[in-house]
Amino acid sequence: MAMSAGDIETMIKTAIPDAVVTIRDLAGDGDHYAAEVVSESFRGKSRVQQHQMVYQALQGNMGEALHALALQTSAPE
């Protein structure tokens, strides 16, 4: 079962409340998304640590209900 863009955004914002999240469905199939996540909580963290925070927010759905996620993370400028 595919995840909706709204579900992905909600899960990320629940775990990272200050996040500004932009989700795009890349293939129109509900399985392949691109997400841009900007959060002050990413400041000082490596890109790997930032991505790990987002993957934790998705609570194990990565690779299951969510097949592919192209992820860009950053702290606000």
Considering the chains and any ligands shown, give keywords for the structure.
26% strand; 2 helices; single chain; 3-stranded mixed sheet; globular; 77 residues; 3 strands; alpha+beta
Please provide a written account of the structure.
With 77 residues, the protein is α+β, with helices and mostly antiparallel strands. The longest helix has 11 residues. It is built from two helices and three strands, in the order H-E-E-H-E. A hairpin with a 6-residue loop joins strand 1 and strand 2.
- Give the fraction of residues assigned to helices: 25-40%
For the CA atoms, what is the radius of gyration? 12 Å
The helix/strand class is alpha+beta
* Strand runs, count: 3
Helix segment tally: 2
Largest sheet: 3 strands, mixed
Oligomer: single chain
Question: Would you kindly provide a brief summary of this structure?
Answer:
This protein is α+β, with helices and mostly antiparallel strands and 77 residues long. It has helices spanning 5-15, 47-57; strands at 20-25, 32-38, 68-74.
